[in-house]
Amino acid sequence: MKIDKLALILVVVGGAILGTLWLGSMILASLQMPVIWPLVIMAAAVGYIAWRVLEDRLRSTEDDHYDKIEK
Hints:
Keywords: Membrane, Transmembrane, Transmembrane helix. The protein is mainly α. It has helices at about 5-30, 35-60.
């Protein structure tokens, strides 16, 4: 990958992150929501995603091909 393409991707992703944070702060400021609720919502979302990933990895039969190799 060329360095200019990588730099462009980093700038776009950074802009998207900053835009999302700015928009979220404007929405939360307009709602006068307590500070703890966004943290609780984000923690619940991260926990749910981690749970789903772990569950998928543990139940996947495609990842069991190393178990069939004799040691």
